[in-house]
Amino acid sequence: MNFNATSGARHPAQKGSRKKRVSDTAAMSAPAYPPPYNPYASAVPGNMPPNMNMYDGRYVLPPPYTASPDYSRIHPSFPPADQGFSIPSQFLNEPLVANVAMQYGQALVGSGKQLVGQELEKYVPFSRIKYYFAVDTRYVTKKLGLLFFPFTHSDWSLRYEQDGPVQPRYEINAPDLYIPTMAYVTYVLVAGLVLGMQDRFTPEVLSIQASTALAWTVFEIIVELITMYITNIQTNLKTLDLIAYGGYKYVGIIFAVLLSILFHKTGYFIGLIYCSMSLIFFLVRTLKVQILPIGTSPSHHDPYMHNSGNKRRMYLLLFVAGIQPFLMWWLSFHLISPPVPKS
Amino acid sequence: MLGHLELADVERKRYRLPSCKHIACLIVFLQTLAVLNPFRTTDASILQDTDLAGPLVFCLALGAFLLLSGKVHFGYIYGIGVMGCLGIYALLSLMAVSAVTLGTVVSVLGYCLLPMVILSGINVVLSLQGLTGFVLTGLAIAWCSLSASKLFVTALFMDHQQPLVAYPCALLYGVFALITIF
């Protein structure tokens, strides 16, 4: 199963290969036993025992049982044309049968894996998630620079291709999930480090930090989704976009906590305030493109985005951007050490 | 002995082929040397055969050196190793266009654990808590993650993503370094 990041373009090819595979296994899924395996009948060199003619698609009657009397017993539950497969242990010892069984098993495993992948795709959309991880080094460095200093960036619009936004690799304004994920993991590790430096570290602390931060992020996303649903605002924002934008705050948290190692409380608050301001600016500018309607939007941008509810959209935008500083403070204030008393 | 052949040649010398056990050790050693030079250009075929014996040997060696320093951390090594491998496997399967197998990930991460094993060996004789200790630790983490990311990027045909792969590997090896030092 190869999931390409440009999932839209890939699906027809996947469906095509799936069709091909189904047609391959269609021959095997015949109700009769054994599966009529045409290619293997022709691959067998000349000297095959008489009952091997079963491998033809047609249920031909075998020649008279002169050479192998063992296979003359007919299994009652099989269709009458099948004869001679009633002793599995002896049957499986035949080299041809072993080959066929292995090929059948391998093909079954392949189609089974594909089936599992399809089922899993319904619950966790891997192909959608792969889009958010299609990043490269240039994008990540530029995005981190943008998170810390968004004030000079001028063009915040998002380019689209035929069915979705351009991959983050090619569009600096597109959200990604690599930075939020890495920032989350780094946040947990930095929290462990800082607590270790204050002699407050136990291994449970790491899991407590991780689950607390995760719970708060999930809560924030749910509140945003409910708000968007209640106020009936329709945007292009997907849930994964919201997760991405919610995860950018961990970069600011890490910066503030690292400053607190050197400069204690003052360093922490300075870092927190600066990162909050830049994150608010970044989010307002980025989400303005996606939530507020653009007056002269190109025709392909979103024909379904209503121009009503501007005030509601503004409030949603300010809400999303405004809860970030509070959450940043809430998730990190317990990590800073009190200033060292001067002796 | 298995593999012990005698060849009669014109000078009537005996040539002895190495035994299978020796060949296996040799392969592990050669693969280790091949993967651990971060400045050597590698090709993608190096990961065709995923070998899990080398990584296992390195994990046991790491645990043994930690034991010599008075810390019994086999459980931590196993737990962090498993979780780290699963996490990096998930990340790489999302980031790379070509297919990733768990065996490849475990094999690469295990082989690149060697600098960490060397660090824990140094920790037995010197204490790593001073400035030189931090510098050595940083160098070891950088060496591990650079070689691991180089192998991943080469084997999975990822372009311009080596630092992005190196960072999570550095986090993982940083956790190993933490349990080595503290």
Protein model, in words:
Chain A: It is found in: Endoplasmic reticulum membrane; Golgi apparatus membrane. Chain A: InterPro entries: Yif1_fam. Chain A: Belongs to the YIF1 family. Chain A: It is a multi-pass membrane protein. Chain A: Residues 1-28 are annotated as: Disordered. The complex is a heterodimer of chains A (343) and B (182). In chain A, α10 packs antiparallel against α11 (310-330). Chain A has 343 residues and is mainly alpha-helical. Chain A has eleven helices and no strands. Among the domains of chain A are: 94-123; 174-293 and 306-335, no CATH class. The relative contact order of chain A is 0.08. With 182 residues, chain B is an all-alpha fold. Chain B contains seven helices and no strands. Chain B has helices at 20-36, 53-68, 74-95, 102-111, 114-125, 131-156, 162-181. Mean pLDDT of chain B is 81; it is low at 1-7. The chains are: A mainly alpha (343), B mainly alpha (182). Chain A binds chain B through residues 1-2, 4-5, 126, 129-130, 133-138, 140, 178, 181-182, 185-186, 189, 196, and chain B through 87, 91, 94-95, 97-99, 159-164, 167-168, 171, 174-175, 182.
Unreliable spans of chain B: 1-7
Shape of chain B: globular
The tally of strands of chain B reads: 0
Query: Which sheet architecture does the biggest sheet of chain A show?
Result: none
N→C terminal distance of chain B: 47 Å
Radius of gyration of chain A, whole Å? 31 Å
Radius of gyration of chain B from CA coordinates? 19 Å
Measured by residues with Cβ under 8 Å of the partner chain's Cβ, the largest interface is:
A-B, 21 and 19 residues
Number of strands of chain A: 0
What's the pLDDT, averaged over the residues of chain A?
Answer: 75
Along the chain, the helix and strand elements of chain A come as HHHHHHHHHHH
Secondary-structure element pattern of chain B, one letter each: HHHHHHH
The DSSP helix count of chain B reads 7
Helix content of chain B: 55-70%
Oligomer: heterodimer
* Alpha-beta classification of chain B: mainly alpha
The description of the largest β-sheet of chain B is: none
Q: Tell me the overall shape of chain A.
A: globular
Give the strand content of chain B. under 5%
Helix content of chain A: 55-70%
- Roughly what fraction of the amino acids of chain A lie in strands? under 5%
